[in-house]
Structures are given as structure tokens and as C-alpha cells.
Design a protein that fits this description.
Blueprint (H helix, E strand, L loop, with lengths): L3 E4 L9 H14 L6 H4 L12 H9 L5 H17 L7 H11 L2 E5 L4 H11 L7 E3 L12 H10 L6 E5 L2 H9 L3 E4 L15 E3 L7 H13 L9 E3 L1
Parallel strand pairs: 1-2, 1-4, 2-3, 4-5, 5-6, 6-7
Length: 235
């Protein structure tokens, strides 16, 4: 029986991933270079320090760049873009339904705690989650399962009692490694990437109510392991 939901943050509750990528693309373009999604993709869902765009730009240019200056430029542009973003469709409805159903709620994010809590506060969601686990709480971030295992322990849930909601391939892999049923909701950026290792893939949380997701989880489990070889796609 499902007793809890564990949400990713970046790209799932708030689309911070597209602004981050677009801001860096602007920086690269100013230097006559193109930051391709293929180069950026492996960083999505991981700790922000996993990929260094400045080092990548240096390789493209064949010369050193002022990393501190470029990071300031990118951060300013990214902040402006993120301020235009609001909570992604369906998230509030899922939180409301989870509350009515008595489900425990947690967050497992590869970003640092200050980043996550600042945006949760801006969105008015800081009191919605009983547990928030971030890069500050673990040794290894996604795709390592440690964040999800930490969140499960704090929620006092077994893996079979929770569902993970993710938008990235690395996030899905972390959730699956922790033993969770994982629902993937790709954002405009991750929609271009492979995410077929999720158990259920939906276009938007606004397209399917939480109650239906819970029904699908139960049906998949009744179908046995063989029925889970391919992800279920909805909408």
C-alpha cells in the first residue's frame, strides 16, 4: 500500500533546469560557441557541480576564460528566467490530494538545501513537505540512491510504500536503485532525453489525478514482474 510520495524539485516542482541551460547557452553564444543539449544532458538531475560549463567553453574556444565573470553573467540571466517560472502544472493538485489521502510527503533533490528552501518559500510550499533531503544531507547525489534512501528513512517508509516523482533520467535511476516505483514527468528540456527506465511516464501531472496513478501502481504490482518490463505511458 502506498503511504507516501517523494518529489524531485528542479524540473519537477519548478522548472529551473530550462532557465539554467538557456542562460548558459546565452553565455556561450556571446563567445561564438554553441552549448548543445548533448553536452549539458548528463548534468541534469545531478549536483550542479557535476558539469563545469566554463571548462567546456574553454575547450570550445581553445583558450582560458574568466570563470568567475561568466558565472556571474549566467547567474544573473538564470535568476531572471527562473523568476518568470511558477509552480509546474498539477503539483498543487497532487499535494492537495496527497493531504486528503493522508500520504506522507518528501523531497529528494540533488541541489543544495538553501536553493530548494528558497524556492519552496517563494512558491508558498515550504510547509507542504514533512521531509526535505538535499545534497547537503548525503555523500552522493543522483543517480546514486542515497537521497531517496535518506528520504524514505526520514519518512519512516519502506521503498514499496512510496512513489517517486521525477523528471530526469538520473533521478529515475536513483529512485529505481532505491527500490521505488517511479513516475517520470519530463519537463520541456528532459522531454528530449531518454527516460524509458521509469515505471510510468506522463506528460504532465495536470493530465492525470493522483488517485489514478495510485490505481496504476496497484495494477502494475498485481501484474507481476513481467508486466513491468516496459513503462506505462499516459497522455
Amino acid at each position: 500500500m502506498i503511504k507516501g510520495l517523494i518529489f524531485d524539485f528542479d524540473g519537477l516542482i519548478l522548472d529551473t533546469e530550462t532557465p539554467a541551460f538557456l542562460a548558459w547557452r546565452t553565455v556561450f553564444a556571446a563567445h561564438g560557441c554553441d552549448l548543445r543539449l548533448e553536452a549539458w544532458a548528463d548534468s541534469i538531475g545531478r549536483n550542479p557541480n557535476h558539469f563545469d560549463p566554463c571548462t567546456h567553453l574553454e575547450r570550445c574556444l581553445g583558450r582560458p576564460v574568466s570563470g568567475a565573470s561568466l558565472r556571474r553573467q549566467q547567474a544573473e540571466q538564470e535568476a531572471k528566467l527562473i523568476e518568470r517560472e511558477s509552480i509546474l502544472p498539477g503539483v498543487r493538485e497532487y499535494l492537495g490530494s496527497a493531504c486528503k489521502l493522508g500520504l506522507k510527503l518528501g523531497i529528494a533533490s540533488s541541489s543544495d538545501r538553501g536553493w530548494v528552501m528558497r524556492h519552496l518559500s517563494r512558491l508558498g510550499l515550504e510547509r507542504e513537505f514533512g521531509v526535505v533531503r538535499t545534497a547537503d544531507d548525503v555523500t552522493s547525489t543522483k543517480p546514486d540512491p542515497e537521497l531517496y534512501l535518506s528520504a524514505l528513512a526520514a519518512l519512516e517508509l519502506k521503498a514499496a510504500e512510496a512513489i517517486a516523482l521525477e523528471d530526469s533520467g538520473h533521478g529515475v535511476l536513483a529512485a529505481k536503485r532505491a527500490g521505488l516505483f517511479c513516475v517520470a514527468i519530463p519537463n520541456p528540456l528532459t522531454r528530449e532525453l531518454k527516460i524509458d527506465h521509469a515505471d510510468l511516464i506522463i506528460h504532465s501531472l495536470a493530465d492525470i489525478p493522483l488517485e489514478r496513478v495510485l490505481e496504476i501502481v496497484e495494477l502494475r504490482r498485481r501484474g507481476g514482474e513481467g508486466a513491468q518490463a516496459e513503462p506505462t505511458r499516459v497522455a
